[in-house]
Structures are given as C-alpha cells and as structure tokens.
Amino acid sequence: xxxxxxxxxxxxxxxxxxxxxxxxxxxxxxxxxxxxxxxxxxxxxxxxxxxxxxxxxxxxxxxxxxxxxxxxxxxxxxxxxxx
Length: 83
Fold this sequence. Notes:
The chain is elongated. It is mostly helical and 83 residues long. Helix content is 83%, strand content 0%. It has helices spanning 3-45, 48-53, 59-78. It has three helices and no strands. The longest helix is centred in the first third of the chain and has 43 residues, at 3-45. 0% of the residues are buried. It starts with a helix and ends in a 5-residue tail after the last helix.
C-alpha cells in the first residue's frame, strides 16, 4: 500500500473508535431513559395501593445520577469537536 493510503487508514481508526464509543454511550443512556419512562408510566397508571407495592425510589441514587449527568454535560460543553 502507498504511504498516503496507510495514512488515510491511520487517521480513520481513531475516528471509528470514537464513533463506536459514542454509540455505546448513547445506547446505554437510551436503555436507562427507557427504564425510567417505563417506571414513570407505571407510577402514573397505577393507583395508590399499587404504588405502595412498586420498587421504592432511591433519592440518593437519583441525586447521584443527576450530579453525574450535570458533570458530563458541563464537560461535553467544554470539548471542541474532534473534526
């Protein structure tokens, strides 16, 4: 292969790796979002008695998630686009 061809693929690998990592992150966040929506729907649909039988919400875990997401969003806002 020519040097130009090798350089092209050397530049493509990190871009592909980053794209794959972003896809993995988005898929995980989508699953979390779907689970939260399902739980929210169940809580809105069910009556008070059914609500008592539901899994209890962990306020500390919710706060940890909110803090984590705030930190990630703030850091994302400081990054420049890779291309």
